[in-house]
Amino acid sequence: MERAVRYSKKREAILTTIQGTKCHPSAEWIYQRLKPCHPDLSLGTVYRNLTFFLEHGLVQRVGTVQGQERFDAIVTPHSHFVCDCCGSILDLPEINSDAGLDQAVSQQYGLAVQRHKLTFYGLCPSCTNQQNNNKEEPLS
Amino acid sequence: MERAVRYSKKREAILTTIQGTKCHPSAEWIYQRLKPCHPDLSLGTVYRNLTFFLEHGLVQRVGTVQGQERFDAIVTPHSHFVCDCCGSILDLPEINSDAGLDQAVSQQYGLAVQRHKLTFYGLCPSCTNQQNNNKEEPLS
DNA sequence: ATGACTGCAAAGACTTTGCATCTTT
DNA sequence: AAAGATGCAAAGTCTTTGCAGTCAT
Question: What residues of chain A have any CB closer than 8 angstroms to a CB in chain B?
Fold first, then answer.
């Protein structure tokens, strides 16, 4: 028997928050963002709802960055860029490794591939600038 | 000033263990594996050496699977398959998304891309079989 | 002898969970 | 009223770290 799902003001607020930002937030970020308007929100509720959204395909995991899982409300296939320095995440919508790739890997290796993640790592423009500044004006 | 590096029996054993398995081990796995021959090994030492290997390019992170970081002693570019069910990891040596991809993304988005990870997810053959068996012979 | 490496245990960080209470239907 | 959702706090995992002792050079 399927579990019934009920409306909840907090759940709606959490999902809206994820959908309303491009930052690919962590649980803690969502919690801090909602705290002012929902002073009685608990971090456990954020985690429970994130699990709920994952199970219902409303959200996907981007990956663990600096120890924290990050989430994305865009569930259509696309790639990501992660800044090694500040941990910011960008969507790369035009870098879709081709859709037949999963099937190709399945056949080639005898696996049941369901999806893949393509993630790029490096420095975002802001962190690149800061590194260059530090080179030009080194500390004593 | 660079820090001097000294030989250590434990360090060598840890690296050899990673290099000697295809399982893309976690820190805990390495620790359990070495315990019989090195009863005084501590998990902290495994973690410290993993950090050392990462910093020296002897090992790379594969990603977090079921809460644990997994490591790979093969540091040349290649893709991975992760079983969603049992967490096993396979190398996919022939699936190298092309080498110019990092540069293409760098130019297209104005980023300083240094590397990327391409990881496939699904069910390994063993877990696929178990799922089918459960369908055919459902529990009461 | 110097300083790098380790064991041990404590601390840290992130996430999950049990239980009583509140909310939705 | 029934059962899902939440708050709170405790517990659980994985990883890092401080310190004293050990080992390599």
Answer: 63-64, 79, 81, 84, 90, 92, 94-95, 97, 101-102, 104-106, 108-125, 128
Closest by CA to B72, choosing from B114, B116, B25, is B25
Nearest nucleotide over every DNA/RNA strand to the A45 CA, judged by C1': D6
- Residue B94 confidence (pLDDT): 80
B49 touches strand D (CB under 7 A): no
Closest approach of chain B CAs to the CA of A41, in angstroms?
25
At A135, the pLDDT band (50, 70, 90 cuts) reads low
Mean pLDDT of the A41-56 span: 98
Average pLDDT over all residues of chain A:
93
Distance from CA of B65 to the nearest CA of A (A): 10
Mean pLDDT of chain B: 93
- The full set of domains in chain B, from first to last, is 1-75 (1.10.10.10), 76-140 (3.30.1490.190)
Question: What is the DSSP annotation of chain A?
Answer: -PPP----HHHHHHHHHHHT-SS---HHHHHHHHTTT-TT--HHHHHHHHHHHHHTTS-EEEEEETTEEEEES--SS-EEEEETTT--EEEETT----TTHHHHHHHHHT-EEEEEEEEEEEE-HHHHHHHHHHHHS---
**What confidence tens digit (pLDDT) does each residue in A94-109 have?**
887 677 899 999 999 9
